[in-house]
Amino acid sequence: MQTLTLEGYLAADPSILSAQGSGKKRASFRVLETTRFRRASGEPGERTTGFNCVCFNEATTENYIQPYAHKGSRVVIQGHVENDTWTGKDGVEHYDLRLVVSDIRLKNRRDAARSEGTAAGVSERDADADGGYDLNDDIPF
């Protein structure tokens, strides 16, 4: 299986859905990635690509994506690509690719926790313990 790593920004707030039979939650969202380049004429250009993503891990959806991921959040995602097919209301079959998330990192999680304060149940110390680094600390290796 091939693994894809993608870094970009959430296009909108994630959609949290529950499965009909089991009630398990999943997150569905779109990540935008912009590539900057220089044309042959020397002019700068950019191309933005959107990726449909889905996270089936219920714990990640409830404890990580739902409280912290919002429109504009910078994310790094790892997962694999799957074909997605569905039939529209007009009876036409549609095809798309989606990234099935196996790992997600929110690059601005600490900032969101601080702005929400302890109302969200996350103290400033807990947010720092999740990934804040102090460059003055000794490196353990």
CATH architecture of the domain at 4-38 and 46-107: Beta Barrel
Strand tally: 6
Give the proportion of residues in helices. 10-25%
Determine the CATH superfamily of the domain at 4-38 and 46-107.
Answer: Nucleic acid-binding proteins
Supply the number of helical segments. Answer: 3
**Category from helices, strands and their pairing:** alpha+beta
Mean pLDDT over the full residue set: 81
CATH class descriptor of the domain at 4-38 and 46-107:
Mainly Beta
Instruction: Describe the oligomeric state of these chains in a short phrase.
Output: single chain
Walk across the major sheet and give the strand order: 1-3-4-6-5
Low-confidence stretches: 117-133
Strand/helix succession: EEEEHEEHH
What's the topology here?
Blueprint: E1 4-10, E2 15-18, E3 25-38, E4 44-55, H1 58-68, E5 74-87, E6 93-106, H2 109-116, H3 124-131
Parallel strand pairs: 4-6
Antiparallel strand pairs: 1-3, 1-5, 2-3, 3-4, 5-6
Keywords:
141 residues; 6 strands
